[in-house]
Specification:
mainly alpha; N-utilizing Substance Protein B Homolog, Chain A; 0% strand; globular; transcription; transcription regulation
Length: 140
C-alpha cells in the first residue's frame, strides 16, 4: 500500500473519531501520534495536513458539500462518507499539496469501497465530480 493511501486511511480514522466525538479523552494530536510509526516523515506530514486542514476548513467544506449533495443533508450521510468528502474536498480546494484532482477523487472512491457501503463510492464520486467541474469553471 502506498504511503499516501495509508496516510489518507489514518486521516479518515482520525476525522471519523473527531466527528463522532468518540475521542475517548484523546486530543486529535494524540491520534496523529498513534500513526507516526506506520508512516515515513512525508506520509506523516501529509496525514497531519489533511487532518488539520479538513478540521480548520470544516465549516466551508460542509457548505460546499451540502450545496452539491442534492436531497442529502450532512447529518443524513454516514460519518465515514462525510469524513471522506471533507478530506477530498479539502485536498481539491485548499491543500497546498497540489495533488491532481483525478487522483484525489480516485483515492476517495477507494476509501469508500474499503470503509463504507456498497453505494457510497458512486455517491462520493458523483459529488466530488460536481465539485471538480465547478472548480474547473472557477466557481470555487
Amino acid at each position: 500500500m502506498g504511503n499516501r493511501r495509508l496516510a489518507r486511511e489514518h486521516a479518515l480514522q482520525t476525522l471519523y473519531y473527531a466527528d463522532t466525538g468518540k475521542t475517548q479523552g484523546k486530543d486529535i494530536n494524540e491520534y496523529k501520534e498513534d500513526f507516526k510509526d506506520s508512516l515515513d516523515a512525508a506520509g506523516f506530514e501529509f496525514c497531519s495536513g489533511i487532518i488539520d486542514g479538513a478540521l480548520e476548513h470544516q465549516a466551508e467544506l460542509d457548505k460546499i458539500i451540502s450545496a452539491y449533495a442534492k436531497n442529502w443533508s450532512l447529518n443524513r450521510m454516514s460519518v465515514v462518507d462525510r469524513s471522506i468528502l471533507r478530506m477530498a474536498a479539502y485536498e481539491m480546494l485548499f491543500s497546498p499539496e497540489n495533488t491532481p484532482v483525478a487522483a484525489v477523487i480516485d483515492e476517495a472512491i477507494e476509501l469508500a469501497k474499503k470503509f463504507s457501503t456498497e453505494n457510497s463510492s458512486r455517491f462520493i464520486n458523483g459529488l466530488l465530480d460536481q465539485i471538480k467541474k465547478e472548480r474547473k469553471n472557477g466557481q470555487n
